[in-house]
Structures
1.
Amino acid sequence: MDRNRVSNHTTAPLPMDLHIAAQQLINGWVLGSVYGLIAVGYTMVYGIIGMINFAHGEVYMLSAYLTAIALALLAALGVSSAGWVIVLVLALTVLFTALWGWAIERVAYRPLRAANRLAPLISAIGVSLALQNYVRLAQGARSQGVPALLDGTLRLGDGENFVQITHQQILIVVVAFASMALLAWVVQRTALGRACRATQQDPLMAQLLGVDVDRIIAVVFALGAGMAAVAGTLVTLNYGSFDFSIGFVTGIKAFTAAVLGGIGSLPGAMLGGILLGLAESLFSGFVNTDYKDVFAFSVLILTLVFRPSGLLGRPEVEKV
Amino acid sequence: MSLLEVQDLSMRFGGVAALHQVGFVVEEGTITALIGPNGAGKTTVFNCVTGFYRPHQGSIRLHRPEGALELTELLGGPFRGRDFASPGAFFRRLKYKIAGGSHLAARAGVARTFQNIRLFRGMTVMENLLAAQYNRLNRHLLSGVLGTPGFARAEREGIRRASAWLEFFALLEDANRLAGELPYGKQRRLEMARAMCISPRLLCLDEPAAGLNPQETAELAGWIRRLRQDHGVTLLLIEHDMGLVMEISDHVVVLDHGEVIAAGTPAQVRRDPKVLTAYLGLDEPSP
C-alpha cells in the first residue's frame, strides 16, 4: 500500500493507522475552517431576516474568480513578495465580493422583503442560476487555474509513518480563525455589531430607536459575502483550480454546517463547519471517498430530524 | 407652543376605518393622555405618530426649532398631485421614497415604548441602551475594528449617557444583566430608559402602568413627572389606569371608534357626557 497517498483510501485499514487518522484530522480541520467561513454568511442572513440565501455558494464561487483577477492585477503591477500578494489579494477579493453580496441583497431580496417567505427563496435560486451562467458565459466553462504561492510542507514523523501539513493549509487555518475572531469582535464589541444584534432580535423596535434596518441588513449581507470571500481566496490559493460550478456543492455543505451548528448562531456556524469537515475527512479516510457527499448530506438530514435547532441554536420561540 | 399637531388623520385597514379625521395638539412640555375604550384606535394613532404606519389621509407635524417635520411623509408614500406643484415637495417625496423609513421618526425625536414590552432580551441592559444610541455612536466598521480614539470617545460618551438614565430609573446595579432576566417592573423601566437614550422631544408611552402594582404605578407617576420637569420631555401616553391619567395629565384626548369625542383638562373630560357614554355604554347621556 502506498502510504504517502493519504487521502484516497477506499478500504478501512485494520488495525487503524494512527498517523492516517491524524492526517485526516488535519485535513478535516482545514476543510472545516473553510465550511465555517462560508456557513457564517448563511447563519447571519438567516438570523437577521429569516431567509436562507441560496445564492451564497455562488458568492463564494465569484470570490474564486475575483481572486484570480486580483492575482493577475498584482502580477501586472509587479508585486511579487508572497506575503504582500496574499494580504492584497485577500483585501481586494473581500472588498469586491462584499460589494457583490450587497448588490444581490439590494436587487434581488430587498424589494421582496414584504412578500411571503417563499418569494425571496425563489429569488435566491434565480440569483444562483443567473450568477453561475453569467460566469460560465463571461469566463468560459473550462476549469481555470492559478499558480501556487506557497509550496512548503511541514512533515512530522519518520519513514513511512508521518503526517504532513502544507504551508497553504496552515495559512487557511490561521486566516480563517483570525477572520472569525475579527467578525466576532465586530458583532460583540462595535456599535455596528450591536445594531446588527438588536435588529436580529427585534427589527421593528430597532427601527423605532433610529437604527436604519435596511442598511444593517445590507451590511450583514456584505459581511457574510466578505467571509465567503476569505474562504474563496484561501481555497483558490491552495488548490489552484476552480470553475463556475464550485459554488453549489460547497455552498450546500456550508449550509449543512450552519444547520448542524444551529442556524442563526455565529459560534454554531464555526463549530458546525469544523465538525462537518472532520467528519467528512474521517469518513473519506476510513470508509469511502466516493460517498463523502452522501455522508455529509446524511448529516444534514439527521440534524434536521433529530435536532432541528442544531448544536448551539436555541429552539424557536414563538414571538408574542 | 405646540410640539405635535395631528390633523384630519384617517386610517383604514381593509374596509374598517380605524381612525376617522382625528385631530389633536400636544403642547410642548406637557403630559397628554390618549384614552378610550378598547379598539378605539389609540395604538393606531401611536403607530402613525412614530412613523410605523402611513395614514391614508391627514398630517402629523412635529414642530422643532429647526422647522416643522411632516411625520406622515417619512415612510415614502406615492407621489400626489400637489408634489408636482413645488420642487421642494417633489424632492422631499423622492428623498423619502429612496431612503425613507420608520427610523427617521426616531431620529427626528419621537421615541416610544410598547404595551407588551419589546426589549432586546438577549442583550444586556447596558447594550440595550447603547443600541438606542446608534445614531450618536461611531458606527463605522473600520473605526470599531481598529478601536480609533473617535470610536472609544463615542463609546465612553454613550456609556456615560446610558448610566445616567439607568441611575434615573434606579437600574444601575442591573447594568450587566440580560434584559430578559429582569423582573417585569424593571423591564418596563428599562424600556423607558432606552427610549430616553435617543434624547426624544416627544416620548410616547403605550400603557406604561399595565401590569404594575399600585406602588409601582405611584413610582411611575413620579418618574413621568420628573422626565417632564427635569428633562423637558413632552409626553404622550395611552393609559387605562384612570387614576394615573387624572393625576398626571395636563391634557386628555378621548377616542372612541376612531374619532376624537372629547378633549380638555382631566376635570373637563371626566364630566363630559360623551365620555361617560363611551365608557359606560349608556345610550343617552344622563342629564
2.
Amino acid sequence: MVEIDDIILKITLISKKIRRLVIKMLSIAGSGHPGGSLSCVEIVTTLYFHIMRHRPLEPDWDDRDRFVLSKGHSCPTLYANLVLSGYFPEEELKRLRMLDSILQGHPDRLMTPGIEVSTGSLGQGLSCACGMALAGKIDKKDFWVYVLLGDGEIQEGQVWEAAMSASHYKLDNLIAFLDYNKFQIDGKVCDVMNIEPLKEKWASFGWYVQEIDGHNIAEIISAVDCAKKIKEMPKMIICHTIKGKGVSFMENKPEWHGVTPTKEEAERALSELV
Amino acid sequence: MEFEATRDAYGKALVELGRINPNIVVLDADTSQSTRTNWFAKEFPDRFFNFGVAEANMTGYAAGFSLCGKIPFVSSFAVFGSIRNFEVIRTSICWAYLNVKIVVTHAGISVGEDGASHQSIEDISAMRSLPNMTVIVPADSRETKKAVFACIEHNGPVYIRLGRAKFPVLPEASFKIGKANVLKEGKDISIIACGLMVFEALKASEFLEKQGISCMVINMSTIKPIDEEIIISCAKETKGIITCEEHSIIGGLGSAVSEVIAEKCPAKIKRIGIKDVFGTSGKPDELLRKFEIDSNSIYNAGLEILNDRL
C-alpha cells in the first residue's frame, strides 16, 4: 500500500503543477477554456504519469499507448502534461494560441509533438480512437487506446454511432473516460440537452461501465485496472468532476467555460494552488 | 463499343491492390453490394469493415486506421460519403493530412431512378474546397483502375468520384494525378470534360466537326490540383472553352476552369452542368437531355461561342 500511496501523492503534486501551468498559459493567451481543462486534470495526469506506456523522446514509438483528447478544447491540460512528461519545453506554453506557435487553440497533430489526433470539433475523437483500437487488433498489437470525452460532447450523434460500433467490433483495448462536470457553454447539461441516464445508455450500447469520482486518483487507477481485465467489450469510465476544479471562483461556473482569467484573477487562482 | 461501370472497375482494382498491399483496409456503410467493395470483402474478410448506415463514424475510423499505418479506402454513395460526413472529412482527415482514400459511387444525375435525394451534384464543389484534398473524376473504367492505383502512391487524402451506370470505355490513355489528357486536337473550340461527360463531349465534337468546326477535347480527370497549363493553352489557342460535368455549375469543374481563365488568361467560357437545381427521377439518358448536359447541349454551346451569342 505504501507504493500506491506514493504514486497517488506524486500524481497529486503533479496535478497541482498542471493546474498552475493551465492558469498561467490561459492568462497569457487571453483566450481558451479553463473550466473543462481544470475538470479533467487528474484523469489526464494519471494517464500520462502512471497508466500509459509512452516515450516522450520517441513520440512515434510504434507500441505506445494512445491518448485521444476528444474534448479538444481542454488541450491546456494535455499540453501541460506533455511538457512535464518531456515532449517539449515549458517555454512553449507562453505562446499558446499565438501566431506560428506549436500550441494551437485546439490540438493539431502536425504541430505539436505527442498529439495523436487533431481534435476540436466535438464528437469525432471517439471514432478515431475506435479506428486506432481496431487497427491495433488487426495487427495483434498490445497497446491501449484511451479517449477522453466531454459531457456536452456526447450530445453529438456521431458519438453514439461510434459507441455502437465499438461493441460490435469488441474493442476491449479501448478505455473511454467521460469528464462529467455537468456544465456546457450554455448552462447545465441537464437543462441544455439532458444526457441521462448515462450509465444505462452506455451499458445498453454494449459497454462495460464504471462510475467514479474523477478527481480521486486512487479511483481512476483502480477503475483502469478493473477495465483492463474485462474482455470482449469496450470500457467507459464515467468520471464525476467539478468544472473549474481547484480554483474556488471558477468551480461549477459555466461562465468560465471559455473565458480566461485576467492577471489579477490568475494571481488569485495561483494563490489557491500552492 | 464496350461499356463498363466505373464502380465495377473500382471493385476489381481494390481486390488487385489488396493482394499486393496488406495495409489496405476497406470501409463501407451498408452500400458494399453497390459500391462493389463486397468483392474485396469476399477475398479479404479480415480487412473489410462495415459500419452500417453511419458514414460520419466510418470516416472517423478511417482517420484512426490511417494513424496506425493502414491505407483505408472509404466507400459509400457520393451524397453520403462526401457531403453528409463533410465536416469529419474536413477536420479528422484533411486538417490532419491523413492518408485516407474516399471513393464514392452513384455520383451525378446518371444515378437515375432513385431521384434527387441520391443524385450528388454538389460533392466536387465541397471536396475541392478542402485544403490538402485531391479530387479525381475518372472518365471510364480504365481510368478508374489507374486512378485507384495512383492514389495509393500519393500520400494524403484523395477523393475519387465514380458512377452507377455503365460508361463507354474510351481508348487506352495514360493517367497522372494533376495532368489532363488531350483526346483530340482542334483549333476552334475547346471542350473540357470530366467523368461520363467526356464521352458526351467526344460525341458533340463529332457533330461540330461535321459543321466544319474543329474541336479540342480534353479529359480533365483531376479537378484538384487542376492542370492550369492546358487550360491556359486552350484559352489562348481556341476561340472559347466549354466545360462539361455531371455536377452543379457552381463549384465544380466549370468553376475551377473559370477561376484559372479569369486570373491567367480571360477567354469565352460556357459551363455545361446542372443549373443550380435538384435532379429528379428518370433514366440516365433522359436526365442528361432534360438537364441539358447531353452531347446536343454541348453542340449548341459550341455554336453559341462561335456566333458570339453568350
